[in-house]
Design brief:
- Helix content is about 60%, strand content about 0%.
- By secondary structure, it is mainly α.
- It is built from 7 helices and no strands.
- The longest helix has 14 residues.
């Protein structure tokens, strides 16, 4: 099932397809089928589960964000499974000193 994940789903293929095959829709369908069949990688399932657990607990999400903002990204980014290859060829952006939520509160008050 790697083929449905071989696209960024940007839609450029639909623009150039002479018969207007809805390729992104088809790929999303096959991605959904892969998830239903349990064919997604263990790391992806674990990461999604951890994110869902944090995202539903605001204090835990805020704490994780604070921890990540203080992580030395230049080294850590290269060792992360998802970002490792990407980070080998790029400089990791420097994280913001404040979270989006902190900036939002400051803008409102």
């Amino acid at each position: 099932m790697p083929l449905p994940h071989a696209s960024s789903l940007c839609g450029a293929c639909v623009d150039v397809c002479p018969v207007r095959i809805p390729i992104p829709d088809l790929l999303l369908h096959w991605r959904e089928r892969a998830v239903e069949a349990g064919l997604t990688p263990v790391g992806e399932r674990a990461g999604s589960g951890m994110y869902a657990g944090l995202a539903t607990r605001p204090r835990a999400f805020e704490g994780a964000g604070a921890m990540l903002r203080h992580t030395p990204w230049r080294q850590t980014g290269r060792s992360l499974p998802v970002l490792g290859s990407w980070a080998q060829e790029r400089d990791m952006p420097r994280p913001s000193a404040k979270s989006f939520r902190q900036l939002w509160k400051e803008g409102i008050e």
